[in-house]
Amino acid sequence: MGIQDPRNRQGLVAIVSVKDAAVVTSGDYQRYFEEAGVRYHHILNPATGKPAREVMQTTVLGASATDADILSTILFVLGPKQGIDFLQEVQDTQAIFITPDKQITMTNQLTKQLEFTGEDGYRITIHKK
Predict the structure, then answer these.
(1) In angstroms, rounded to a whole number, what is the distance separating the alpha carbons of residues 70 and 73?
(2) How far apart are CA 103 and CA 7, in angstroms?
(3) Greatest alpha-carbon span in the chain
(4) Among residues 27, 26, 18, 25, which one has the least CA distance to residue 92?
């Protein structure tokens, strides 16, 4: 399954191999508008009431599509560091975070499943979960 480049609709940043798993992505690039050079999207940080800004995209792999959908939004708001920490308590779930500075952070179990395209200046960091 292709992981879309959040700033290039025709591009992929990675391809993930999955079997018997749900894959769900949340991002700031489908439902948004720009005003005065600022992107306003639909995923809000409940602490501020403003759009979450730490990531452009999160992708979650898990056994349940419903759980992966919920988690992808939660992780989008938490960002990579807090999101990886949060996932310590969630079994059989992996995640990929893409930040505005083109950093891809992912849980270490995905290293054998993810093929990075290496396009558009993205870089990868792997975190133990």
Answers:
(1) 6
(2) 13
(3) 44
(4) 18
The CATH number, out of the four listed (3.90.110.10, 3.40.50.300, 3.10.520.10, 2.60.120.620), of the domain defined by the range 2-127: 3.10.520.10
Domain ranges of the chain: 2-127
Distance CA 105, CA 17 (A): 17
- Cβ atoms within 10 Å, residue 82: 13
pLDDT digits (tens, 9 = 90+) for 11-63: 999 999 999 999 999 999 988 899 999 999 999 999 999 999 999 999 999 99
User: Rounded to whole angstroms, what are the CA distances from 12 to 85, 114, 124?
Assistant: 26, 12, 14
State pLDDT tens for residues 73-98: 999 999 999 999 999 899 999 999 99
In which residue are the tokens 């940080």 written?
45
**Residue 10, token pair as written in the block:** 């025709």
Q: Which two tokens stand for residue 91?
A: 């079994």
Closest CA to 23 of 128, 81, 80, 106: 106
